[in-house]
Amino acid sequence: AKDAGRNRLAIYTQALSHAAEQRQRLEQELRQALERQEFLLYYQPQVDNQGQIRVLEALLRWQSPHRGLVAPDVFIPVLEDTGLILEVTRWVLQEACQQILHWQQQGLPWRVSMNLSPRDFQQADLAGSVLDIVQQTPIAPSLLELEITESVLLDASAQVQDSLARFKAAGIPLLLDDFGTGYASLTYLQQFHFDGIKVDRQFVDGLPDSPQSVALVRGIVTMAQHLGLHVVAEGVETAQQALFLRQNGCPILQGYYFDRPRPGNYWSERGNATYPA
Ligand code: C2E
Ligand code: CA
Ligand code: CA
Ligand code: CA
Question: What is the ipTM of this complex?
Answer without folding.
Answer: 0.98
